[in-house]
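Sequence and fold
=================
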Amino acid sequence: MELRQLTYFVAVCEELSFSRAASRCFISQSAISHQIARLEHDLGVQLFERTTRSVVPTDASTRLLPLAKQMLSLESAIRAAVRTSSPRIRLAANMSFATRSLSAIAGAREAHPGAEIEFVIKPFRQRIAAVADGDCDLALIRGSVQQPGLTVEQLWVEDLMIATAPAHPLAGRTDVTLKELGDYPLLLPPESEQVLLHNVIRAAFADFPGPIFGPPIPPDHTATMELINHPDAWTVLYANSPTDGIATVELIEHRLRIPVSAVLRTDARRSPILTTLLAALHCA
């Protein structure tokens, strides 16, 4: 039994989907299925009831899940306990924050030449857990989080991009209004997977009719492909998202905005390098 197998096991339990768990862990679906099968073989039990439509944890999974989370938490605590005493910062984020983060890291390292700053790629839940456990010093997230022991500091605000298929009637325009968008179906992931996006959309359309929702984007599909399959639809993308093969247009009202925040431990000591990095992220 390996710790990475426990990581994959927890992801499948929480996502109830091998494809979503694989995406969250940044590996292929076949790889995560193989590792879960190995874990089941090592433990001598079946952990999931699999059908073509669902993944259901067994009683053995229910008993294993809290222990697996405890093991992974201990791993993070061990790494935090033996970290080098030299100036070092671990920043947890995802690739959509890479450009701005790396610019801020470069500025912070210029101010503190002896410091080491790591850019660690983690899914949302793992970013929060890494800060809470002390494995990472801060995490970048969109929106906010309320958890005892954690502090959230807003860094900047992003305008969401409006995206359509090249054949869409609004493609080629320099800008559009919410009223105009309300005439076309909006493609989004299910609200259970993207609560923040749905809340922002609802707030933006509070004074307008709509939006008209098209079919939810499946977890194993991309927004780009869904736009090609639904040329009359539109969607929203985060800043710095890939836009190959689709058209983007600016929203006149600038109502579709999402705050980007840093998550830190409430009791964390603000070292000079951490203070400099936060300031650089504010200004990057």
About this structure: The longest strand covers residues 150-159. The chain has ten helices and 13 strands. The first helix runs from residue 3 to 15.
